[in-house]
Amino acid sequence: MKFALGFDDYAAIDSALAETDSLLAKGYPGDDGTRQPVHTVYMPADKYQPSLPGDWGREALAAVERAGGMAALCSSMGASEDLASLVSAKLASEPIEDLRLDFEDGYGNRPDDEEDAEALRAAIAVARAVKDGIAPPFIGIRFKCFEEATRRRALRTLDLFIGGLLTEGPLPDGLVLTLPKVSTVAQVEAMVFACQRLEAVHGLPSGRLRFEVQMETPQLILSHEGTVPVAELLHRGQGRVTALHYGTYDYSDSLQIAAEYQSMEHPAADYAKQVMQVAVAGTGVRLSDGSTNILPIGSPSDVENAGRLHARLVRRSLERGYYQGWDLHAAQLPTRFIATYAFYREGLPAAAQRLRNYVHRNESAILDEPATARALARFVHRGLLCGAVSSDEVSGLAGISTADLEALAHPKKNVRTPVE
Q1: Radius of gyration over alpha carbons of the chain, in Å?
Q2: Residue 416: which residues within 8 A CB-CB, separation 6 or more?
Q3: For residues 400-418, b (16+ Cβ closer than 10 Å) or e, as one string?
């Protein structure tokens, strides 16, 4: 049989697709398989003390007791009472996974000397909490936005905070920086420039400073030119954009949605988040849903209704592929972890059995292909990383090691071949 295509043809096609190959390799590396926090807690910067996570954990457990105990709370949320010990242990050991000291809306506009002092105080407090082992795994600041009125104040706070951290030692591994109210790609490029300058001045490795982008304006969903800037900014961020966080209330307000109907589940919110989800697909950039401002405080019925709402919204986000959200009150922590752990534990038996059948090539009524196997493995792996699932359960139910599970979930990161 004579081949119609020869070496020169292959070379010509390789040359024509070289730019595509480079884009896919650099711009779409896939998720790196590292831990993603299940939530971010926002706290006005001047309210932060190193003891805050432990204080919130104790407040959360006290709220549970007022609700009749953890088993009763799980039951009222429609979750298994078997989760009670797991969630109680989480609140006692690691009640906050990701903490953001807020110099933006939660802090407001104050005299420069006051914010200067607070930025340095916060930096030193964070650094020492990390050294003492009492800081959350992820911690950082949200500074003001890069619009003209607040741009220099934002950069000054960022500069002081990074410099203050470095006076105490290396930057924390879990450092997170949040750029809010982004409306153009140029603002992301300005943040890239600021990171480059900070790295150069402080002798940090190139690329050490990365940041989240808060999606709070419609201009990132649809520009004045009819383009989708959120997709562009990911690639103009030079690998520094780590996550997109949906801002429920700023985004809703920008669309003139009445306050009563502003919600994470409003159709306008769903549309924006679906655009974000498509934009980040394959890039390795994570997504976070926003918050609900209906807090579990007040009368017993108000507390119960707010808790039910929060748990339902957390579950809704998880089912739609948003594995992180915002929490604004200590009493939201129990329902956050109840809903999250229930999501993974309820889905574990079926997912693990399908993984077992796929890996060991067992005959099954469901014919899972590689893409579905990756989705199953990612689901179980996320449950493992957040503490809802144990490695013993994975090996027992799926017949696969955690290393092989990760290899299936994130094949671009791993070169291991799962056992057969």
Answers
A1: 23
A2: 403, 404, 407
A3: bebebbbbbbbbebeeeeb
Task: Calculate ∠ Cα 291-211-270, nearest 5°.
Answer: 35
In this prediction the pTM is: 0.93
Stretch (H or E) spanning 301: helix 300-319
Summarised one tens digit per residue, pLDDT across range 59-105 is 999 999 999 999 999 999 999 999 999 999 999 999 999 999 999 99
Residues 6+ apart with CB under 8 A from 110: 118
Q: Is the predicted pLDDT of residue 420 greater than 70, yes or no?
A: no
Residue 20 in any domain: the answer is: no
Q: Determine the straight-line distance between the first and last CA of the chain, rounded to whole angstroms.
A: 36
Q: Looking at residues 218-242, what average pLDDT do you find?
A: 95
Q: Is residue 385 part of a domain?
A: no
The predicted-structure confidence for 194-215, as pLDDT tens digits, reads as follows 999 999 999 999 999 999 999 9
Of 208, 283, 192, the residue nearest 243 (C-alpha): 283
Question: For 77-180, where are the alpha helices, taking DSSP H only?
Answer: 84-93, 112-131, 151-167
Q: How confident is the model at residue 412 (pLDDT cuts 50, 70, 90)?
A: confident
**For residue 274, is it within any domain?**
yes
* Gap between the Cα atoms of 149 and 141, Å rounded: 19
Is the model's pLDDT at 414 over the cut of 80? no
Q: Considering its fold, how many domains does the chain have in total?
A: 1
Could you tell me the residue range of the domain that residue 92 belongs to?
A: 39-343
Burial readout 199-213 (b: 16 or more C-beta within 10 A, e: otherwise)? beeeebeeeebbbbb
pLDDT of residue 360: 87
Q: What is the CATH number of the domain that holds 72?
A: 3.20.20.60
Closest CA to 374 of 359, 391, 392: 359
Residue 251: phi, psi to the nearest 5?
A: -65, -45
Q: Which two tokens stand for residue 59?
A: 């407040």
Instruction: Specify if 65 maps to a domain.
Output: yes
- What are the tens digits of pLDDT across the range 274-308? 999 999 999 999 999 999 999 999 999 999 999 99
